[in-house]
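Re: export button greyed out
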Amino acid sequence: MNIPSSKFTFYFLIGFVLCCLLINNDIEAQNFTLSGYIKDAASGEALPSATIILPRKKTGTRSNDFGFYSITQSKDSIYLQIRYVGYRPIDTIIYLDKNLNIDFRLEEESTQLEEIIITEDAGKQMVQSSQMSLISLPMSRIKQIPVMFGEADPIKVLQLLPGVRNNSEGNAGFFVRGGGADQNLVLLDGSPVYNASHLFGFFSVFNPDAVKGVELYKGGFPSRYGGRLSSVLDIQMKDGTTEKLSVSGGIGLIASRLTAEGPIGKKKKGSWIVSGRRTYLDAFTRQLNTANKNNAEWNRIPDYYFYDLNLKATYEITPKDKIFLSGYFGRDVFGFDDSLLDISFGWGNAAGTLRWNKQLSSKLFLNQSLTFSDYKYDIKNSLELFSIRLFSGIRDYGYKAELDFLPSPKHTVKAGVLYTYHELTPGAYEGSTRDGGFQTRSANKMFGNEWGVYAQDDWDISQVVRLNYGFRLSGFVTPDTQYIYPEPRLSARIKVNEKLSFKAAYSRMAQYLHLVSNSSISLPTDLWFPATNNLRPQVGDQIAGGFARLLFKNKVTFTYEAYHKWMQNQVEYREGAQIFFNPNLANEFVSGKGWSYGNEFLFQKTEGKWTGWLGYTLSWTWRQFPQINSGERFPARHDRRHDIVAVFTWNISNRAMLSATFVYATGNAVTLPEGRYVAFDQATLKPVIVPVYPKRNTLRMPDYHRGDLGFTWKFDPRWGESDITFSIYNVYNRRNPYIVFFQEIRNEAQEIEGFEARQVSLFPIIPAATWNFKF
Amino acid sequence: MRLHSPYTTNTLASWNRLQLLASILLLLHFVACRNPKIIEVKLPEHEPLLIVESYLEPGFPKTVVVQQSSGYFDAPDILIIPDAFVTISDGTRIDTLVYTPLSVGVFSFGVYTSLDTASIVKPEYGKEFTLRVEAKLSNGETRIATANTRLLNPVPVLRTQHIFDGKPENKAYITGYLKDAPGEVNFYRIIFLTPSTSIYPLPANQTERDSVIEYTVTDELFDGQEIPFGSPPFFEPGEEVRIKLLNISKEYYDYLVSLESAVEGNGSPFVEPFNVRGNIQGDGVRGIFTGLSYQLYRDTVPIQ
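Workaround output, generated via the alternate export path:
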């Protein structure tokens, strides 16, 4: 049992109640409330985080995750500006003499490929907001960035922003501000996704056609989020259109996508969307294998494919009650069968959310959801005499209730409770001989009950000071132990003028699940393991500070943030750990600490025909474990001293758009042999060259850099919309390092003449084309 | 617990393999991988280590291989130390071993041994031996290595079976069983040798056919049971196979496992590299001192 800082918790709660009393003082009897939803004009999709500005009152608010907004003002005519990145703005005047319910419908800009007019306000929003360390990207923006094989991918685009890194070429696993790959809470419509990668990390599981937009919090976490130390990636699926049946899709180099959406019922009170994606290289590789069936030198290519299926339905039971049902199902399937080996390997996620939004009043909005998430992998290997199965997984059942209280434009209050039941099967196995003479099995299940309560308020104290303060109390209960952690959160903004604001944030996060990995790349077999009596939860503290500044007539936004993060109870495998076939896996873990610090510089130009960003990160990431590296600190694999990213988009005309990306990063920290000797091995008399390694991760891979180009041409067919996107990944064919290894140079007599270092690179120049359509 | 049955070894090896194959599938220009680019890597100066391997194999002279480690890109020859002071004691008798050069394949080792027949290792199971090596390295530093070990009781192979894979070359799997002692944690090393590989020393022009199949296994899943072990489909009808079933200490087992990881860690993204762990004590020293207790099992693959 661990209940630290209970005194602090008590005083914080008292403080919070007092603040809420202050909030009530803002509410006057003559006030009226304007509330409703901000929606996409064409599809009826709700637009989250849209801004509603009252310039004359010098105040404003944002729509919540479901597009709901609420503004309370005294009886007056109010001038409103509705803004959402990528959409045409709405400016309007409304006479508020009673409580009003009005939905605003914004028209999307990107469908016209015109310059994005509204985006000036994106910069203003950055100056205005108390939230720092937040990246918000609509899908329309993500699709503009050239990516590998032409497959638009939200996570790959996020990796192009300061503070967010991949760990190797093409990998969709990501590391935020020095945190581990498991420290990212990935939410798909509120359901956690435990392995967001396909094909060992080369693609993320997020089908671009089914995603509305993404938000990534790198720090300054609002109290509503918890359970991971380093980031929250909140991905919202499209709701589907309420207008008319629509079909869209794309045909690409390695995968194709198809999405259908439409209204429910004649009154169009609901919508549905079904979106699928599948790779199809296996169709070709099977034919190649069949054609070379009698070719002894042919190396059989394994069958591999992945698919995703996203489903969502929404229905408006009453104007104030809306239900959502969303689901995701995706699998990777790998099969290989030759003379030595018959192996099948499958892994994938399933996630589902049943949500009920209820507008309790014009100021109160209740969101309740039931969530389900399942991740598992299963490897089956059959040989003549023996068959083996390795499997592992995690399954969650959750309930969440959140209340939005919007008493006045000065306050946005959120409070909620959540509970998740975790069921884990870490490192299970089965094995048996064909004759049944030997059988072994271990499938120990582990359980955990995770809970949290929280409250937060975004408080516009004055024109200058804005505060987002909150508190979260979270806990984890297992049959053997329980943990409780208070998690205070605080973000503050001081606005010097309309062009400059300073921000600072502190947040504490607790994480009750560990992902333990033994490799330098994200693998589906990395194990999720719960906190136990001996394995304490991860706890992280992060402070961040910086400023946002508008430059060049507000056309460019410059943000600078510095951060320092401390991470306790980090977990790794001990040296020489047995990962597979181990009924006592917990004995293989060691605990230590980590810390990271860095500076992030980001210039963004969001207005005009040229848009894009230039980012630079200078950072350090350390780990220290008493039982690893002789107890000395070592840089994490993903420690990068310098990281530069440039992204440019040029809207040439209504039909044509050109985009370019450049990435430069210090090489990954790596452990390479520094010395060697030859082991004699009297039992076999097969000498082997044995590497001698220096301290962990003391060497660096060669630097990484790459340029990509993309070009989109939009057609104007009678039947709907259509475009073709050409992309060139790694345009100057840089051979970036993926693996570096040392090997001997042998002559014809097999005598060793010397040693050399070799570098394996993965992706050379890759041109791709994707045709997208919608009707 | 560590299980390295032939099947799991295969599984894990193929596991690595299939991940690479997955990459091949996608990476249409995988030429780069087939011909990795030579690059220049500047390594920090290597602080040499004293490396000691010593084996007590009943019926054979005591053997101590002494060398020093070299920088990875230094000259390829093994850095032999011919003037070390090497002793092995069994509590009553102390043998001072003398330097003898020995070639195994393309490698030239410096081996310390004794030609005195009285010093040949006797099957005195349970008896403790102490090793001491004092050697001066090329950097002028003197290192002292010490270690203790015991000979464990050999464990017999109970029986074998042969199953042919039915493929055109009709290779045979050999599966065997050993009887594990109950109530204690045991470790085994299983080695399949064909006659050419069992001849000491190994011929210089070793071919793939002469490959030794070897792996380690613990009894944690099978305490006190008959433990199955086996080979991949490797052996030809009529072929004579010798099975060395070594009953090994935990130290030697850990050494073998760490040796495998150290070798795999050079270039595999799936393994975290770390150094070999053995039972040789001392500053700047590394290696193993172990008994090799086994009963050689002679097996002949039947002709179908």
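Chain B touches chain A through 108 residues (CB under 8 Å). The button fix ships in the next patch.
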